[in-house]
TrEMBL record:
The lineage of its organism: Bacteria, Bacillati, Actinomycetota, Actinomycetes, Kitasatosporales. It comes from the Bacteria. It catalyses: 6-(2-amino-2-carboxyethyl)-7,8-dioxo-1,2,3,4,7,8-hexahydroquinoline-2,4-dicarboxylate + 3 O2 = pyrroloquinoline quinone + 2 H2O2 + 2 H2O + H(+). Residues 23-232 form the Thiaminase-2/PQQC domain. PANTHER family: 4-AMINOBENZOATE SYNTHASE, PQQC-LIKE PROTEIN. Pathway: Cofactor biosynthesis; pyrroloquinoline quinone biosynthesis; Cofactor biosynthesis; thiamine diphosphate biosynthesis. Gene3D superfamilies: Heme oxygenase-like. It comes from Streptomyces yaizuensis. This is Pyrroloquinoline-quinone synthase. Keywords: Oxidoreductase, PQQ biosynthesis. InterPro entries: Haem_Oase-like_multi-hlx, PqqC, PqqC-like, Thiaminase-2/PQQC. Residues 242-266 are annotated as: Disordered. NCBIfam families: PQQ_syn_pqqC.
Amino acid sequence: MSTLAVPRTGTGEPWGPEEFTARLRAVPAGRYHDRHPFNVRMHNGALTPAELRRWIVNRFHYQRHIPVKDALILAKFDDSALRRAWLRRIQDHDGVTEGEGGIERWLRLGEAAGIRRSRLLSGDEVLPGVRLAVDGYVNFCRLRPALEAVAASLTELAAPTLMRTRIDAFERHYPWIEAGGLAYFRTRIGQGRRDSAEALPLVVAWARTREQQEAAVAALRFKCDVLWALLDSIDTATAADSGAGTGTDLGVAGDTPGPPAPGARR
Ligand SMILES: O=C(O)c1cc(C(=O)O)c2c(n1)C(=O)C(=O)c1cc(C(=O)O)[nH]c1-2
């Protein structure tokens, strides 16, 4: 796992809170997935409907696992206030009642793009690399200490800006997606800000030794790699389409799903 590959000296004096915070912030500033070629093409309006639909289908796999990894993190806390705060994250995605929450909003995004919710829910078209990236994140949160699992969520420091860029890009370049479908992204701007503003002081307070601080920075790097690898996988499927010259649209609403993406799990 990449966290093990990151050298940890752990021998130095701990960084002061300001330096540590700056080092944490520098991670997504340098390697967040907003720079990934697939996202760059999305923002430039260069994606075909088939490519955008493939992204929506595959990103749903990430979305539906966020409350799972948050439940694993919650189980590590021995403090009621912390558990309450983390429970809210789960509710942000699952809703408090049926028909609410981020997962429901993502399903509506799919519908706004012409993808039936049953196709998202089936998971049939999730690419192998996307499965591995998401498993990697969930298992990281399962196995690593709370400090590192919470530090990994700090990619959200960069997410609100990306959400704004994405909303602008969708409105400008992909008007065939019904406007109501963008509610997921609009809601996440505030939630991402609040989540990262809450998590950052926890990480700064919990990491008392240099080794813990370095582990937190490594966790955040690992999470950036998860997001990057996820897009690599989607991008490779896109490249395979172009190579085959098909440009097959896998996502149009209909009772019969299109053929699976190249490399998709059958
Ligand atoms: O669309 C994106 O680019 C993006 C990125 C991230 C992120 O940075 O991890 C999250 C989300 N979206 C998101 O919607 C979301 O709910 C979320 C939760 C978390 C997390 O690690 O706890 N990251 C993200």
